[in-house]
Amino acid sequence: MAVIVRIPTPLQGLTNGREEVRGKPGTIIELINDLDKQFPGLGERISEEGKVRRFVNIYVNEEDIRFLKAEQTEVKEGDEVSIVPAIAGGGVVKEGL
Amino acid sequence: MSYVKVLKCRECNREYPVEPIYVCEFCFGPLEVVYDYSSIKKVLKKRVIEKRPKNLWRYRELLPIDGEPRVGLESGFTPLLRANNLGKALGIDELYIKDDTANHPTLSFKDRVVSVALTKAKEFGFETAACASTGNLAHSVSALGAKSGFERFIFIPAALEASKIVASLVYEPNLIAVDGNYDDVNRLCSEIANKYRWAFVNINIRPFYAEGSKTHGFEIVEQLGWKAPDNVVVPCASGSLLTKIWKSFKELKEIGIMKDLNSKVFAAQATGCSPISAAIKQETDIIRPVKPQTIAKSLAIGNPADGYYALQAVKESGGYGEDVSDQEIIDSIKLLARTEGIFSETAGGVTVAVAKKLRELRKIAQDEVTVLCITGNGLKTQEALNGHTISPHYIKPNLASFEEVLKKVSGLGGYRWR
């Protein structure tokens, strides 16, 4: 078993078109580093200097990691991680403007 | 003629051609319009602007269009009124209200951004305009889109109360009620925007749309006699309006219309959704998303797209941020109405209440020229005041019954018929 990672369309060019890939358990930032080894170039698209890019949202089992421990959030075997580009217009718009 | 050079990623500075795109392919950062200010400087002078019709297009060189304005020819140039009564209540000698409750045609500042977005959408050749919203944005796209001949798709969550959507339905757009919450609606809209060649004003047209907010700031400066105020208090949802007001002040300085710029920009939020003001108060650069819980629904964005940039604008200007409770919001809506005769939506209550707090904290001084941005009309969100207004006096249809009331009202019964 591994961590299941969902890749958004704009990054699937780096994962040979795969929507779902597998990575090693650990912290989110360790997971990103592991993914970058498997799919070179993926890491810098998602993160910069050990921080997740501001306009990339990462969810662990559907919870935003900013509500957890951000980059230090631990993911274990069987967890599902989604990488979602924030829509410029409010990632989570709860009420309309 | 266009003065737009390129679109540029605000995060990694990669450049893109002027197209209906909104996000950097590399880092997913938002794209920003970049202008040729040295050319604009040569043509856009105070006297040129002053001769033009009183609408938001009088600053057209600083807006991202190529040809003639096509939408919103009566939008913008709302009153900037001296608010002496409210100023007295807040302890500010020179207070002004920038009153977008009177914006044409749908009574909110969204008529500015939608005018620019739909003009640009025409230039790009779009025939369909769309948005995800339930409030001011939906009204504006529905109305301005009707006038300018767009097919319109407005996306809302299905569970929304009917009363909130009549002000969109009357313009007969295609109203799509999605079985899901706002997150679901947004996600769906971004997928639709990828698949169909439609102008989603706040998605693929966003870099252009957002520029329309600058006109709120340009007008403040012009109406103050080509001077920026000492303080401007701006309500924050995504943080875009605040960011663009600050940009508008800087642009007028850049092109030489203003010599000095010493304005402080203040962010106003509801405590129940205050990711921006919280970050300002905690002196951090990290905007921590929240799950909104406030009556100020038009400001209830828990994960504000431009929050980081709003934060930078506040810091750069030496301003601050505050947030207020639902009760303070209601009290301030009433205060604004009672003192200045302006009925604002909840966002305006937030702005007034935050200004009061900033004054109490001495972040705003008594003798500083201060402008409050009031962005939407209270007639749209009357339910927020249910149970919080005074009551009518019920009487029988006779003079005695009326005079009973009059005695109570006047205390002394001192009114005379002439």
Secondary structure layout plus pairing:
The complex is a heterodimer of chains A (97) and B (418).
Chain A: E1 3-6, E2 20-23, E3 26-27, H1 28-38, H2 42-46, E4 47-48, E5 51-52, E6 56-60, E7 63-64, E8 74-75, E9 80-85
Parallel strand pairs in A: 1-9
Antiparallel strand pairs in A: 1-2, 3-8, 4-5, 6-7, 6-9
Chain B: E1 4-9, E2 15-16, E3 31-35, H1 37-43, H2 46-51, E4 80-82, H3 84-90, E5 95-99, H4 110-124, E6 128-132, H5 136-147, E7 151-157, H6 166-169, E8 174-178, H7 182-195, E9 199-200, H8 206-211, H9 214-223, E10 231-235, H10 240-254, E11 264-270, H11 275-281, H12 307-317, E12 321-324, H13 326-340, H14 346-360, E13 370-374, H15 399-410
Parallel strand pairs in B: 5-13, 6-7, 6-9, 7-8, 10-11, 10-13, 11-12
Antiparallel strand pairs in B: 1-2, 1-3, 4-5
Helix pairs in contact in B: 3-13, 4-5, 9-10, 10-12, 11-12, 13-14
Give structural notes.
The complex is a heterodimer of chains A (97) and B (418). Residues 88-97 of chain A have low confidence and may be disordered. In chain A, a hairpin with a 2-residue loop joins strand 6 and strand 7 (63-64). The longest helix of chain A is centred in the middle third of the chain and has 11 residues, at 28-38. By secondary structure, chain A is α+β, with helices and mostly antiparallel strands. Chain A has helices at 28-38, 42-46, and strands at 3-6, 20-23, 26-27, 47-48, 51-52, 56-60, 63-64, 74-75, 80-85. In chain B, the strands form three sheets. In chain B, strands 4-5-13-10-11-12 form a six-stranded mixed β-sheet, sandwiched between helices. Chain B has a four-stranded parallel β-sheet with strand order 8-7-6-9, sandwiched between helices. Chain B starts with a strand and ends in an 8-residue tail after the last helix. The model of chain B has no long low-confidence stretch (mean pLDDT 94). Chain A binds chain B through residues 9-10, 45, 48, 53-57, 64, 66-67, 85-97, and chain B through 11, 22-31, 110, 132-138, 156, 181-183, 186-187, 190, 194, 202-203, 206, 237-238, 273, 288-289, 291-292, 297-298, 300-305, 308.
